[in-house]
Specification:
By secondary structure, the chain is mainly β. It has one helix and eleven strands, in the order αβββββββββββ. The chain has a ten-stranded antiparallel β-barrel. The longest helix has 21 residues. The chain starts with a helix and ends with a strand.
């Protein structure tokens, strides 16, 4: 939680110089937090303690967790940039002989609105899962491309959708596996115009799915990391 507060404080400090002029310029800053009820299912090698060539890949589900993800977005005209952080979170795996695991993520994207409500994006993603007890670490980084879209429904409601694709490579990792990255999210947003310093407050509700899949794990077997679940958000635009 301290890291989340520090991130928000730094983000606000960076944004303050622009907020005073936000009402009179095409520049806007959005700060917010999203709660993601994550269902995490990752891979492991079984059985333990035997040569690698005798092991098989199995999926290891973890107990679901709520994760708070801070978000900072800046827009100038048709250009937009977004930063979000999935903080280090400990998960309990369902299988009795599985030890607890941690995961964290970092995303930064820049984009351009090619039409009202439709933006194409290019970004960078970092993903890591680890276990302090075993010393295991799987860390992936790489570029991603994506698209965001909104469609008004009336009465301050709108539909939104986000999609992204990428090819991530291991860095400082105990597992030397590239992975195809896919992200999809759809939902509804409700926005209210606000007077004063802020321009608007938005509330979001949607469903988010993220998949990392490596076909290089073993012949005939993929190593898959799946995270999905309901997401709720509150965003304030200055």
């Amino acid at each position: 939680m301290k890291k989340l507060l520090l991130f928000m404080a730094v983000a606000l400090g960076l944004a303050l110089p622009a907020m005073a002029q936000a009402q009179e310029s095409p520049f806007s800053v959005t700060l917010g937090v999203r709660a993601w009820y994550t269902q995490w299912d990752t891979f492991s090698y079984r059985p333990d303690g035997v040569p690698v060539d005798q092991q098989v890949i199995v999926q290891s589900p973890a107990k679901s967790r709520f994760v708070l993800i801070p978000v900072l977005s800046m827009r100038y005209g048709d250009f937009v940039s977004t930063l979000s952080v999935f903080p280090s979170t400990t998960y309990d795996f369902v299988l009795e002989d599985e030890v607890d695991g941690k995961r964290k993520e970092f995303d930064i994207n820049v984009g351009y609105y090619i039409a009202p409500g439709v933006a194409l994006t290019l970004g960078y993603k970092q993903f890591e899962q680890s276990n302090a007890e075993t010393g295991f670490r799987y860390r992936l980084t790489g570029p991603v491309i994506g698209a965001n879209a909104t469609a008004p429904l009336g009465n301050n409601f709108a539909l939104y959708a986000s999609f992204a694709l990428g090819r991530l490579k291991p860095t400082s990792s105990d597992v030397d596996l590239d992975a195809d990255y896919k992200l999809g999210e759809v939902g509804v947003v409700y926005s209210l115009a606000t007077p004063g310093v802020t321009k608007a407050v938005s509330f979001t509700a949607g469903y988010r799915t993220q998949v990392l899949n490596s076909k290089e794990a073993k012949a005939g077997q993929d190593a898959r990391d799946l995270t999905d679940g309901v997401t709720l958000g509150v965003l304030v635009t200055f």
